[in-house]
């Protein structure tokens, strides 16, 4: 992520998820499954937004099979080796659900 080109403050524009986004999602998958009570067979990041603070806040839309999606809020620290932690999960989303902070 080019954090130098990103203004500190609000979330940036929605972008197509990439390999880095998918890796971040996989780091919190166990926590997501515990929060939602679902074991996801399909778990593919499709869109993301991020916000630079004392680290990076991510909003990520994840396709979890069929017409089902979930939204994840994930924080990645600038220090501690870029440690990633799940902040929140919003389930029962669709492909067209807006990717907004929650």
Which secondary structure elements does this structure contain, and how are they paired or packed?
Blueprint: E1 15-16, H1 19-27, H2 29-36, E2 44-52, E3 55-63, E4 69-77, E5 84-93
Antiparallel strand pairs: 1-2, 2-3, 3-4, 4-5
Description:
The chain has 102 residues and is α+β, with helices and mostly antiparallel strands. The chain contains two helices and five strands, in the order βααββββ. It has helices spanning 19-27, 29-36, and strands at 15-16, 44-52, 55-63, 69-77, 84-93. Strands 1-2-3-4-5 form a five-stranded antiparallel beta sheet. The protein is globular, with a radius of gyration of 13 Å. It starts with 14 loop residues before the first strand and ends in a 9-residue tail after the last strand.
Beta percentage is: 35-45%
Strand order of the largest sheet: 1-2-3-4-5
Tell me, rounded to a whole number, the average pLDDT: 90
- Main beta-sheet strand count, sense and barrel state: 5 strands, antiparallel
Helix content: 10-25%
SS summary, helix count: 2
Shape: globular
Subcellular location: Cytoplasm
GO molecular function: cysteine-type endopeptidase inhibitor activity
Domain Cystatin: 6-102
Keywords: Cytoplasm, Immunity, Protease inhibitor, Thiol protease inhibitor
């Amino acid at each position: 992520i080019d954090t130098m080109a990103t203004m500190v403050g609000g979330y940036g524009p929605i972008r197509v998820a990439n390999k880095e986004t998918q890796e971040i999602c996989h780091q919190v998958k166990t926590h997501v499954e515990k929060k939602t009570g679902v074991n996801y067979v399909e778990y593919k990041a499709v869109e993301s937004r991020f916000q630079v603070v004392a680290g990076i806040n991510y909003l990520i839309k994840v396709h979890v099979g069929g017409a089902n999606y979930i939204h994840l809020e994930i924080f990645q620290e600038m220090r501690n080796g870029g440690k990633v932690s799940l902040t929140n999960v919003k389930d029962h989303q669709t492909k067209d659900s807006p990717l907004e902070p929650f």
